[in-house]
Amino acid sequence: MSRRRTIPSGEINTMNHNSITAQPSSPIPADSLLRKLMVADPNKDKSLRHLGIVGDTYTILLSGDDTDGRYCLIDMHVPPGGGPPPHRHDFEESFTILEGEIEATFRGKKSVVRTGETINIPANAPHSFTNASKEAARLLCICSPAGQEELFLAVGVPVASRITPAPKLNHAAEAEMKAKIPALLPKYRTEMVKP
After folding, report:
1. How far apart are CA 112 and CA 127, in angstroms?
2. Is the peptide bond before 85 cis (omega within 30 degrees of 0)?
3. H or E stretch including 60?
4. Helix, strand or coil for residue 84?
5. Pair 86, 105: CB distance under 8 Å
6. Among the residues of 38-190, which ranges form H helices?
7. Helices and strands: H and E segment counts in the chain
8. 93-121 pLDDT, tens digit each
9. CB under 8 Å, gap of 24 or more: what pairs does 32-40 form?
10. How many Cα atoms occupy the beta-carbon half-sphere of 188 within 13 Å?
11. How far apart are CA 22 and CA 24, in angstroms?
């Protein structure tokens, strides 16, 4: 896991790039008055979608529709033993641990990430995470650009709240879900990888 490094100001000026991204500089577009301020409270906002996925509960705080496709923001409740299997995708993904801890596996190397820490998963890199502790973990996940929330909506089971566990699927429903996911992954720029 690499740590932040500071780029000397002289190096930034010679890069001829925007200081926010690696993209060439361009004028700032006019403000779009069609876009509105968004406020999302996962504990009170009845319009938010809570989804049971692989034993976790994900709440979509901001979708691509809210951010003009720039990113999505997901509140993740991950019980002990929870977390997605190894996978990779062609978009950036960051996790900030709000409560608890997770064991993140990045390109085969495991790291424990604790409350208050943030990790960034570069696009295309194989990764997974597991809650290896005895307490639930809470993460904020940002995917940029947006789109991952659409996969979650396609495979998730609606649940009542941010911490409501997904209902247990019977054998037939579980088999149907396992058959459905591989067909959807390419559409959402994601693939499963072997551990």
Report:
1. 13
2. no
3. strand 56-62
4. coil
5. yes
6. 148-155, 171-184
7. 3, 12
8. 999 999 999 999 999 999 999 999 999 99
9. 32/68, 35/68, 38/62, 38/66, 40/73
10. 22
11. 7
